[in-house]
Known about the structure:
Blueprint: H1 3-16, H2 36-41, E1 44-45, H3 55-62, E2 67-70, H4 82-93, E3 98-101, H5 122-128, H6 131-147, E4 152-153, H7 178-193, E5 198-204, E6 219-220, H8 225-231, H9 234-241, E7 246-249, E8 252-253, H10 266-274, E9 280-283, H11 289-292, H12 297-307, E10 312-313, H13 327-344, H14 349-366, H15 380-387, E11 389-391, E12 404-409, H16 424-428, E13 433-438, H17 444-453, E14 454-460, H18 466-478, E15 483-486, E16 499-501, H19 507-517
Helix pairs in contact: 5-15, 6-7, 7-9, 12-13, 15-19
Amino acid sequence: MSTYMISLMTYRDLRHEQAPAAAGSPTPKDGLPLELPRLINSVILPGFVGTTAPPWLVGALDNGLAGVVYFSHNIEADAPGQVASLSAAIRAANPDAVIGVDEEGGNVTRLQSRDGSGIPGAAVLGALNEVKTTEAAGRAIGRLCRDAGINLTIAPVADVNTNPRNPVIGVRAFGADTALVSAHTAAAVTGIQSLRVAACAKHFPGHGDTIADSHMDVARVELSMEEMRQHHLPPFRAAVEAGVAAMMSAHIIIPELGEAPATLNPAASALLREMGFAGVLITDALDMAAVRATVGPGEGAVLALLAGNDLLCVGNPLNAYTTGRDDESCYTEVYDALFAAVVSGRLSVEILRRAGARVQALARWSAGEISQNADDAVTWVSVAARACRTDSLGAKPVLAGAGSVTLIDARTGHNMAAGPTGNFLATALGGYGVTVIGSDALTESQLHAAQSEGAVLVLVDSLSSPEQLASLAKILAAAPQAICINAGLAPDTPASFAAIHCHGFSRVTARAVVSLLER
């Protein structure tokens, strides 16, 4: 039986039969508060499986659980109102619940994951560089969340993507220029929070110069703190000045701050508080490898609170690396570790009180009146089309509203933050006779035939990937009129082949690409 269940059943007895403090640990105060289970719950933000709240979750919410994070598997795309009903059920158990979601627009969406986001992502907005448009996109995300009963969107990405080989940020960032990213981060925060949905700028102190994905490995930023202050911290300061309600800490190591990931490093949170941030500091998911494969989610939770975090994002219980675990056990692992740390005297009750109070203040702020309720009259496909860059496309329309299209998907893998997605470009080409095929499945003669029968499009998402570049070169050699649709970062210089650089892969960018091909 987990400590969580014991603590609910026999907590009065446990108060008087405390475990001895571990060697070298502070001695616990005489007696622990009766509300300790609620205090522990008040800093935990788990995921769960299903489209309705399972009994264990309802019980934990009733006992003070901070809230939940929604993932794609919690959403029924064909059931309008399902998410709002789920949110209402969660708030029936805990009126102050924080309900969070990764809703960035563009590549990363949960509420629109099946069909793709209808709101442009950060790289699209950064390429267009219209701050008011970014603010409107923030409002659109805020409206999407509020209509679903969600009061926390874990966005915007405030990272400055200075490393083009970054495997996890890329088009999720507004760009590689610090001033541009700062301006658009502040605009996105303002837009989102105008709907009383808390924005959460991420990933502090900056994940933009890594070459490892902290979902799968420990990521390091080999920069000095002076370089971080010059290039990577300003967007987070801009978010603070815009009144951002929450920040997310990153599982990245900055050697000058020490060898602990920022999430577990008191120096990192102190740096953030020195900027004047008084809101909720949320951990990145504790099931990511940088924590899971080192200290583990339970110990990571304890260290994160000791480091100055307020809210513990447990993670997605359906991730491949949680195989063999159920959603409740992912939650109780964190709860049990916190309970043991308090009983031993290692984690003070005051830390829980302070963190829980910040979380509750966010939830109550989100329940306030909305100052602006009108939606912006923005056609997002047009916005995404204006942001696209075309290289050597020619004056004639590539598509004429009918005919055959061969779409060759040369992408390799998927971004862990976005997760697997459908082929939104194939869907956007639905009015054509579309053949979708992998890059390894076509022979030279088939490529010749495809080009003679209609348009050939090659979908890539990284022009710095040797594998994707090799596939593209092979296709262009046999079908020189093929057009590259680059859903990744646009190169600094124009490509030598026909290309549309659309700065991301979503429903709205796919429709924008088709509109450009038809002009």
